[in-house]
Design a protein that fits this description.
Blueprint: H1 3-13, E1 15-16, E2 24-26, E3 31-32, E4 38-39, E5 42-45, E6 48-51, E7 55-57, E8 62-63, E9 68-69, E10 79-82, E11 85-88, E12 92-93, E13 99-100, E14 105-108, E15 119-122, E16 126-129, E17 133-134, E18 140-141, E19 144-147, E20 157-160, E21 163-166, E22 170-171, E23 177-178, E24 183-186, E25 196-199, E26 203-206, E27 210-211
Length: about 220
């Protein structure tokens, strides 16, 4: 057996490949993952390795631009409680799917998942300047039929944002992927050019290249 082959076997015997869910983050990464693998006793989160005891779950909801603190356990009309702050509904998002514009990343969140003032939590436990947070909507329409009229849509169509959409074309962009040659780049503030749709990682994709599963009839 050659020395190269032996070293390869030893390396992978000591490596634990454990890709965690996107809702997990790391308090203190030990270093970059090599070939998507980490040493035994560590887990792979995003592109980093992390000691198992340093792994924590991102909150289910975060607020981009808090209105103010919660008073007596309630918030004003049109606002919801997120942690210990009041937040406008439009600013509530899932940090496990939110991404950060490349030049707005300010580093990892603190051990308790908090970020400095003026920044918000995003996927992988990164803090991002508020204006750089890209929030994925929960539903997107692959091919809109037309605009919503009177807050409703015709039979067998559903309201998605401000458009009407056939049920079969409604999907969750946080799980949708894009055919390799149909990627047209990152979305701008969550929006994509005409003829394209949003997919996982805030990537815009030509409509015919969007790949997703649906339970809609």
């Amino acid at each position: 057996m050659s020395r190269t082959v032996l070293l390869t076997i030893v390396f992978f015997a000591a490596v634990a490949v454990d890709v965690t869910a996107s809702s997990s983050a790391c308090k203190s990464p030990t270093g970059p993952a090599i070939l998507d693998a980490c040493p035994a006793g560590q887990v792979h989160i995003m592109n980093y390795c992390c000691l198992e005891e340093d792994v924590y779950e991102l909150p289910a909801k975060s607020c981009k631009h808090a209105v103010g603190p919660v008073v007596s356990g309630t918030c004003s009309a049109g606002q919801v409680v997120v942690g210990n702050v009041c937040c406008k509904v439009k600013y509530v998002y899932d940090p496990s799917t939110a991404t950060c514009q490349e030049d707005k990343d300010v580093g990892f969140a603190l051990a308790d998942g908090s970020c400095p003032r003026g920044t918000s939590l995003t996927k992988g436990g990164f803090c991002c300047e508020n204006e750089g947070v890209q929030i994925l909507p929960t539903s997107v329409c692959k091919s809109a039929v037309g605009p919503v009229v009177g807050k409703s849509c015709p039979h067998r169509q559903v309201v998605v944002g401000d458009v009407c959409c056939k049920a079969k074309d409604v999907y969750d962009p946080s799980t949708a992927t894009c055919q390799k040659d149909k990627d047209v780049g990152l979305a701008i503030k969550g929006s994509c050019p005409e003829g394209t749709s949003l997919t996982k990682g805030s990537v815009c994709c030509w409509n015919e290249g969007v790949q997703f599963s649906t339970t809609n009839a």
